[in-house]
Design a protein that fits this description.
Blueprint: H1 3-12, E1 27-36, E2 39-46, E3 51-57, E4 62-68, E5 71-72, E6 85-92, E7 98-104, E8 108-115, E9 123-131, H2 138-147, E10 153-159, H3 176-193, E11 197-201, H4 211-220, E12 225-232, E13 243-247, H5 249-264, H6 269-272, H7 283-312, E14 324-326, E15 338-345, H8 349-355, H9 358-378, H10 385-394
Parallel strand pairs: 1-5, 10-11, 10-12, 12-15, 13-14
Antiparallel strand pairs: 1-2, 2-9, 3-4, 4-7, 6-7, 8-9, 13-15
This protein binds zinc ion.
Subcellular location: Periplasm
Family: Belongs to the N-acetylmuramoyl-L-alanine amidase 3 family.
Catalytic activity: Hydrolyzes the link between N-acetylmuramoyl residues and L-amino acid residues in certain cell-wall glycopeptides
Length: about 400
């Protein structure tokens, strides 16, 4: 359980409520929303005067509202998704305040103002959200407009191992790097066949590529998703089935440390990606923003992983019913949802036979694709063809 989930379950737990009374500051009583022109008005009701600050994050789009020194009067119910708002989450700040995170369907222009008690209403924070064009997404949106449709969702497909690194071995010397490449190539072809999607293979031949470089490929081409394809091995020859891994918080923490170190050295990869301009923020704030972004990416990767695992369950035995979390170097990208799929055990004779079967390779690729397609249908990236199709469906 990561910190955020722990926090959410604590907030949702009634046993925790008595502690709320000990808070001296104002309490947040609830959130309500109403449509407002082309956007949405969100009103937060508090039982006393308060201080607040806001900032926004992208990829995925979020708006953060910190209520300094304010506690929660009751577990906060998220208003139903409407307009640019997809959902509302809350958590405690270290200094006792409350942080609200608004998950957004698109970048917004925010107007926020506090209202004093009046006409039977108490203290309120009003947040007016209107659709805005994010600077980072502007070229894609412009291109979409020019061509009359949205951009392709770019999926970077990484075939595990290669060259001098054979990966796991089967009982007759079968090599993980070979089946991983065949399944990855199948997956890339499947992705490319789907309108609105495009694949890029990290390797298309039997070559050794260091782990760090694989992630760099995804970051350089601004990928929407990174999927690494592998086959497992275990000393216990009976172990079989597929598994899906997402980045763990531990992995994220060490990534954070590395990124912060790079930032200090002036090599601001994150700023360069255009998604997280941190250069002008003070280091402590930059760390908080990056930490939140990593947590959001972990959450996205877990959602993506669940979708792919469910889909894989339709065609193969699952080794684990849950998405596992690990600190694989190949998954450590701070702003791109990433998963690692173990397609089966090459050390298990039955799995190994199937992993070498062309039709099963195709089925695995199809299942992984169905999983990621389902994920992106729910959360189409801004400016993508999928997002345009979704909008047309609403109109
Ligand atoms: Zn592997």
């Amino acid at each position: 359980m990561n910190r955020r989930r722990l926090l959410q379950s604590l907030l949702a737990s009634a046993a925790w409520l008595p502690a709320l009374d000990l808070l001296a500051g104002p309490r947040l009583l609830g959130a309500r929303s109403e449509p407002s022109g082309d956007g949405l008005r969100l009103v937060l009701d508090l039982d006393g005067p308060f201080h607040y600050r806001t900032f926004s994050l992208s990829a995925p789009e979020r708006l953060v509202v910190d209520l300094e020194g304010a506690g929660l009067g009751a577990p906060l119910a998220s208003p139903a998704p409407s307009g640019p708002l997809r959902g509302l989450r809350s958590g405690r700040l270290a200094d006792g305040g409350t942080r609200l995170v608004l998950d957004l369907a698109e970048p917004v222009r925010l107007q926020a103002f506090a209202l004093e008690p009046q006409a039977g209403r108490g203290h309120r924070l009003v947040l007016d959200l209107h659709p805005a064009r994010a600077p980072a997404a502007a070229p894609a949106v412009a291109a979409a407009k020019a061509s009359g449709k949205g951009r392709d969702i770019l999926v970077v497909v990484d075939a595990g191992h290669g060259g001098k690194d054979p990966g796991a071995l089967g009982s007759r010397g079968e090599r993980e790097k070979d089946v991983a490449l065949l399944i990855a190539q199948n997956l890339a072809r499947r992705i490319d066949r789907q309108p609105g999607f495009r694949a890029r293979l990290v390797r298309n031949v039997d070559v050794f590529i260091p782990l760090r470089q694989r992630v760099e490929v995804a970051r350089r081409c601004n990928a929407d998703m990174f999927v690494s394809v592998h086959a497992d091995a275990a000393p216990r020859r009976t172990a079989s089935g597929a598994s899906v891994f997402a980045l763990s918080e531990h992995g994220a923490t060490s990534t954070l440390a590395r990124f912060m170190a790079q930032r200090e050295n002036g090599a601001d990869l994150i700023g360069a990606s255009g998604n997280l301009p941190l250069q002008d923020k003070d280091p402590a704030l930059a760390k908080v923003i990056l930490d939140m972004s990593l947590n959001a990416t972990i959450a996205s990767s877990l959602d993506l992983g669940h979708s792919v695992l469910r889909s894989l369950g339709g065609i193969t035995r699952l080794h684990q019913e849950r998405v596992d979390q690990a600190g694989f170097a190949v998954l450590k990208s701070p702003d791109i949802p990433s998963i690692l799929v173990e397609t089966g055990f090459i050390s298990n004779d039955a799995d190994c036979r199937r992993l070498h079967d062309a039709r099963h390779q195709q089925a695995l690729a199809g299942a992984i694709f169905d999983g990621l397609h389902g994920y992106f249908r729910q959360r189409p990236p801004v400016g993508s063809l999928l997002a345009a199709i979704r909008e047309q469906g609403k109109a």
